[in-house]
Design goal:
four-stranded antiparallel sheet, alpha+beta, twelve-stranded mixed sheet
């Protein structure tokens, strides 16, 4: 087990139903890695603090019930992954805890209510582009609709996420399928990270859990409560990292910016119904995402939900032939990989980057034509806390000497730890 795998599985250590093999692997890694041990200990401290201050009819030696484990496990998961929407890791652990608030109780009740539903549907309107990943947000883009449907049956979860004019992801309980019609057909395990941070919206309780944690742990974060005859409205204000890629390029880091989240609950059942998320840039409030109606316990046909096109599905990462080439690819930096990939596209020699272009096989002729006679120079790589990979900026010089500032996203968080092209083109 490496550090990345540990940080994916560490949340399982807080679940008493964890299988013995995973528990043994995690503990063996902690024994060998001081950084991950410190990571686990810090998380454990936060997780313990997130437990309710008052638990009726429960002695200090009692074991948590299955219902209580089910309620608090997503909060630990949210604390581990942070999932990019509400607050950053440093804010969760840098402030001393404050007293529980009535609004915090509303958040907790909302978490519990959402977890008990068997299915839901909603449409997310996000500032993004149709041809980028689900986790890509840009405050300067127009709104794109993303439809989400999820069904829980027994211990299995089935879902469908469709981006207007872009990709679709389906999980059939065992595997995930991601496709763009006529362009991309890729298959991965249930743990494949196709949705990245956007996976938060498959479990709305995580959004609520992060806001509750932010309120409980820092006086710098606040919540305002209002009511109507039929709704309770909680407006959260806190700090988040700016998602401005231009700022990341120019400064090498993203500044903090104010985030505001409006949560609307229906009074009769305590369910979350509407969500709006704003960021404040240059003293201006920009709506980044909104969900206008979440419909719960909707009648769904599982077969229709997980239906996918008949196609030749490609496994997530092409297998590298030969230990020598694998070693070379694993030793590359993100910049070196981006340079190799782009030059392979420009020259039309796709074999030079065949493993990295697994998502782009069907559009390579188009890309090669678009980049014909171009040159790429001035590479700069930056890491964003909201993205699992690395963003590499470069200057594209066309045959007529005109220049453009472009970027590609590459990532190596796959089993072979080789860089693959993830977006930007």
């Amino acid at each position: 087990m490496n550090c990345k795998e540990f940080k994916v599985k560490v949340v399982d250590l807080f679940d008493t139903t964890i299988d013995m093999q995973t528990q043994a692997e995690c503990k063996a890694h902690i024994a060998e890695c001081p950084d991950c041990k410190a990571y686990y200990e810090e998380l454990a401290e936060a997780f313990n603090a997130l437990q309710p201050q008052e638990v009726p009819a429960m002695s200090s030696v009692s074991k948590p019930t299955a219902k209580q484990r089910h309620l608090w496990r997503p909060i630990a998961a949210a604390a581990v992954f942070l999932l990019g929407f509400v607050i950053g890791w440093s804010h969760l652990f840098s402030m001393s805890a404050v007293a529980e608030t009535p609004s915090g109780i509303i958040f907790e009740q909302g978490i519990h209510s959402v977890q008990n539903v068997g299915s839901f549907q909603m449409t997310v309107y996000a500032r993004t582009t149709f041809n980028e990943n689900f986790a890509y947000f840009n405050p300067d883009s127009n709104f794109v609709s993303i439809n989400i449907a999820l069904l829980r049956q027994n211990d299995s979860v089935f879902y469908r996420v469709e981006k207007q004019g872009g990709r679709t992801i389906v999980c059939d309980g065992d595997a995930q399928y991601m496709w763009v019609p006529g362009i991309l057909y890729t298959k991965g395990s249930r743990q494949a990270n196709y949705l990245e941070n956007f996976a938060n919206l498959l479990y709305p309780e995580r959004i609520l859990a992060m806001q509750k944690s932010a309120i409980d742990f820092s006086n710098k974060n606040s919540v305002m409560r209002t009511e109507t005859d039929s709704t309770i409205v909680l407006i959260f204000k806190g700090m988040e990292k700016n998602r401005d890629l231009q700022q990341l390029l120019e400064k090498g880091e993203m500044d903090d910016c104010l985030v505001e989240v409006e949560n609307v609950f229906s009074k009769n059942d305590g369910l979350l119904r509407y969500v709006k998320l704003w960021i404040v840039r240059n003293r201006q409030k920009v709506l980044l995402m909104h969900i206008d109606d979440i419909r719960y316990n909707v009648m769904m046909n599982k077969n229709s939900l997980i239906q996918r096109p008949k196609a030749e599905w490609v496994e997530g990462v092409t297998t590298v032939d030969g230990e020598k080439r694998l070693g070379e690819l694993q030793n590359e930096t993100a910049t070196q990989a981006a340079q190799r990939i782009l030059n392979a596209i420009i020259s039309g020699q796709k074999d030079e980057a065949r493993e990295a272009l697994v998502y782009y096989q069907k559009v390579l002729p188009i890309l090669t034509n678009n980049f014909k006679d171009c040159k790429v120079t001035d590479f700069i790589e930056r890491r964003s806390i909201t993205y699992a990979g690395t963003i590499v900026y470069f200057t594209l010089t066309r045959s007529d000497s005109t220049q453009e500032q472009r970027h590609v996203a590459v990532r190596n968080d796959n089993e072979q730890h080789i860089w693959i092209l993830d977006g930007g083109l």
